[in-house]
Design a protein that fits this description.
230 residues
Amino acid sequence: MKQLVLDIRPDAPPTLENFVAGANAELVAAVSLLASASTARQLPARHVYVWGAPGSGRSHLLRASVALAREAGRPTHILAAEDVDDALPETADALVAVDDIDRLAPEAQIALFNAFNRSRGNGQSLLLAGPAAPLGLGLREDLRTRIGQSLIYEVQPLDDASRATILATLAERRGLRLADEVVDFLLRHGRRELPSLLAVLDALDAASLERKRPITLPLLREMMQQGLEI
């Protein structure tokens, strides 16, 4: 794992620094470049489409990229698909991010298509996210074609070795000893999305402190019997 976060609590503000890159180093570099450019006219590719399964981190990347662009002084807009009506912002040189584009209503799909057409003139960049490659999106054909002309990245999932390293590192930074059997159990039987694993670690941390017991498999099983969902 080439990038390990400094602060990846579930409630931590999303940044590119606290995104666990794993096999996504090129993707992180691409969205960083997109966000830090003052105008899309400076970029070899002015639009980026990021896709991946729920929990893969694509929404994190959108929010982090918008935050980076805002810090760099670039105008930004970020919208959920459900919030897009018949027009998107036309702010010159803005980074416009739209999440879950598979949920765009028919009039919103036209709005996004028009935003693609305007972007060369107004210097905008579009950063889009969805659950599937362009061909798998249930959108109008002309819009899918325009999305397909963007720079496209699939968010690659973390492997178990990366997940285990993250959990062990975070536990160590909290002064906890996380038994290997606990990590193995969570990865074998629990939800594998990183936010879920971190939430379980928070619960284990609190229980260990309250009960003055080390974090072991018996403690985890006891908590599960009391309602902890892993």
